[in-house]
Amino acid sequence: MKLKYHIPLLFLIFGIVFFFIVLLYIELDVRDSITSDLSTNNERFIEKHEDIAEEVGKLYPDQQKMTTYLKNLGEREQLTIKLTNPAFEQIFFEYDAIEKEISTGDRWLPVKTPDTNEVVLFLSLERKLDEINEAIFQVAIDIFIFVVLTHLTLFILLTLYFHETITNPITNLINRFKMVSLHKQLPAVQPTRKDEIGELYHRFYELEARLHRAYREQIDMVSSIAHDLKTPLTSINGFLQLAVSPLHQTASQKEEYIKLAQKKALYMTELVQEFSIFSTNEIALQEMDRFDVLIGQFFESIGEEYEAELAGLDYSFHWDHDFHTDTYFLGNEKFLRRLFANIISNSIKHAYNNDLKITMKGTIEESLIVINIEDNGVGVAEGDIPYLFQKFYTVEKSRQREKGGTGLGLAIAKSIVENHDGFISAYRSKGLGGLGIKIQLPISRFQQ
Length: 448
What we know:
Elements (H helix, E strand, L loop, with lengths): L2 H57 L3 H15 L1 E6 L6 E5 L12 E5 L6 E9 L2 H50 L16 H48 L7 H37 L3 E4 H17 L4 E6 L5 E5 L1 H18 L6 E9 L2 E8 L21 H7 L5 H10 L4 E6 L6 E8 L2 E2 L2
Parallel strand pairs: 6-8
Antiparallel strand pairs: 1-2, 1-4, 3-4, 5-7, 7-12, 8-9, 9-11, 10-11
């Protein structure tokens, strides 16, 4: 699951679990505690009030003593007191010490004489629930402490979870990044996670592989340039040594040696120019402008151009497509024409078939423009196919020297396609038996 969904869901679960834990605590512990405190205090108050009623009965009928006793009691214990006759018709004493406070409520107690046990008065005592308020306050503190501890525990668990699932993987990735070296490739690790962290790992490993591949290509490039320049340079030195040799040589022989040296020097110049063109091309690709291009119209112009060109070489070129007339893609026609020129010229140079046939087929697959170019040449071994688009890669050096070129044609083609947000690949043609090149370009829009 993606982290953008996983993290909110985790916090939602955290909130629900936290809520139910607190609710369960209140249900099992708090309610019982409050009920118990109320019951205990209520029993204690009943006993105490009965003692007060008994004391008033002892003071009866001395109203002055009863009044003084009840007044002092009301002030001392903050009570609301009423004393009436048995018929509740006459109030003998009244004292109010409670102002809109939570109280025990009024309860009338009979006042009896100690001698005859006769009910002579009724006494109402109402007191503040200060002790119960204190009990409730204590319960509130307990709930607060429990909530804080529960929240802290869940927070620690959540922190450990995020540390294990996010912080550690990123730290490991940073440590691996520090160990990346061009000269030593680290063991490959296949990410198993399907979220953004897994995607980050995948992209990092992909970038690491590209870095090493670029480094190898750089080494191969230097090696190829050195090789391609060393061979003609050796020939030039040899021919010049022969030309200036004191051995008996005719003037025509010396002239022939000089011409051969000039030919090799010209070849070296062409190589350097091709290297320069490749570099210039890479820079230009980064700055190229792209416009809406009708694929059907563009494809037909390419097909007609090479059908006529290859007919002049006594080669066969067939093309067809099923593109809609209103299908566009974003592209730069100048570079795309160079793309097809490199692929088709590569087929002509390396097909090694006097009865050369090249086909070009265009189709639409989902949201992609797909173009397949195949020939009936000698093809390429399966082991060489993955490396065909590498810079300066050549299948056979001897044949390469015969036909010319530096192994940059398909590398340039790959660069052009990728700068058009597309893909290019090679395969063994099943129909013609030679090499096949597959180009995929994204459709930009359909005309409405």
